[in-house]
Amino acid sequence: MTKSAAPKARRSRLGSPPLPTSFYDRPTELVARELLGAILECHTLDGVAAGRIVETEAYLGEHDLACHAAAGKTARTAPLYGPPGIAYVYFIYGMYWCFNAVTRAEHEPSAVLVRAVEPVEGEGLKLMRRRRPKARRDADLSNGPGKLCLALGIDGALNWLPLQKPPLLIRAGEPVEDADVVVTPRIGITQSADWPLRWFVRDNPYVSKTPPHFPRFGPDGKRRSRP
User: Which of 60, 156, 164, 220 is a Cys-bridge partner for 18, taking CB atoms 3.0 to 4.6 Å apart?
Assistant: First the structure.
């Protein structure tokens, strides 16, 4: 792995308090926006790894055809109908786990997909590098939902767990100013594909690649002049 070309990882805020359940018991779009800057932390037998959340997507419920809840309540989607502030972890393509934070009140199925995190400094960063040996740069460790789960050690065993205590939690982080936030449609979906429900930190190298044709909006909903 070439570390010299990688951006410097931010220092950890592992001492900050976990976000309370009430943080998630709100509109999913608001939670997705305000999760930017928070710290996603996972405890495993190998150690603790964490990353600053820099990209999220909102999935709004049964009326959102891109949301798993559009299929109704099943064994797979049941966590979406659970209480706010728990994990919804699912398997895709037969090889990757994806992590979501469940939002809104119980029985109102919706969640925020965490798409990318920026590793924090410390032993956890070394652990992420060991778990992702094919990543040529640190920026490639966690710039996608499947990658970040591999790097942090998140898998299906963490499904349903509350996010306020180990082994899986989200801690308060440094807030991200509106001027540094970009909104686009969600990536890699075909249903409800034009809904502007993806938030990311502008110019952050850990954000997954945005298709060049995608429109970009500011937090105020106005189209940005930048393509």
Answer: 164
178-200 confidence digits (pLDDT tens): 999 999 999 999 999 999 999 99
| Cα separations in angstroms, 172 against 12, 134, 187 | 11, 30, 26
CA nearest 59: which of 12, 27, 97?
27
Under 8 Å CB-to-CB from 36, ≥6 apart: which residues?
A: 53, 54, 55, 56, 176, 181, 199, 200, 201
What CA–CA distance (Å, rounded) separates 223 from 183? 9
The dihedral built from the CA positions of residue 54, 178, 173 and 17, taken in this order, carries a sign that is negative
DSSP SS3 for 140 = helix
Residues making up the chain, counted from first to last: 227
112-158: pLDDT as tens digits:
999 999 999 787 999 999 999 999 999 999 999 999 999 999 999 99
Alpha-carbon distances of 99 from 40, 53, 175, rounded to whole Å: 10, 12, 21
Is pLDDT of 71 > 80?
A: yes
